[in-house]
Amino acid sequence: MRLRQVMSDVFLVEGIASNWTLLREGRDLTLVDAGYPKDVDGVVASVEQLGHRIEDIRGVLITHGHIDHVDAIPALQRLHPLPTYAGERELPMLRGERHEQATTWDVVSRCWRPRVAKWAVTIARAGAPAEVRLPDAQPTLTDGALDLPGSPVAVPCAGHTSGHTAYALPAAGIVVTGDALITGHPIVARSGPQLLPAFFSHDQDEANASLDALAAVDADTVLPGHGPVWHGSLLDAVDAARASGQR
Ligand SMILES: [Zn+2]
């Protein structure tokens, strides 16, 4: 776990193979995503590094229901009950009624590529593949700021999954993009704003179209689901991601 303070009350944490974000407001926290099953100790450690406890988390926002972003949540909920929220169209996946995740075969069939093989070993150790089950997740409201620390605003951006949601922090000029726009991944050589390779996404055309929603966010800092913090114009980030999607 590596925690980076992006602003006074915004922290990006790099887990085993994905990121989560912590928003602080006084004694209260919002957690955005939570990593793989074996990231649970890392999530607890990141909260404690800020001088907080899991009990301080007022809610967990989910960008999307892929295991590398949500599978530590059930273990966290065993420590302390935590309300969870996700885009309305993501809820069937969190209930286990729909699957939109790259299969083991999608990964194995690409393991002739050294980067994919190395990453596959990392995620196998992280606890993948596993079933996502968060039946109690509630839909995020999309009209205005959510009543959670940091006052995040949900930005629906489907494509990577049907209910994928980014979270904007207007006062901080930050957007937490999940996997709708990333800035690096172990299986790709290039760094900077980009889409994930298409085999990870439910609908790459829709993911491309949803970049418009991110371009409309007034922010100059991107906290992605994979890769480092990125500073710059959102329009430039989206242009770069769009170009990556055409490769
Ligand atoms: Zn994903």
UniProtKB/TrEMBL annotation:
One of its GO terms (molecular function) is hydrolase activity. Pfam families: Lactamase_B. The keyword Plastid does not apply. The keyword Thylakoid does not apply. CDD domains: yflN-like_MBL-fold (cd07721). Residues 17-226 form the Metallo-beta-lactamase domain. SUPFAM superfamilies: Metallo-hydrolase/oxidoreductase. Keywords: Hydrolase. PANTHER family: METALLO-BETA-LACTAMASE DOMAIN-CONTAINING (PTHR42951), METALLO-BETA-LACTAMASE SUPERFAMILY PROTEIN (PTHR42951:SF14). This is MBL fold hydrolase. It comes from Flexivirga endophytica. The lineage of its organism: Bacteria, Bacillati, Actinomycetota, Actinomycetes, Micrococcales.
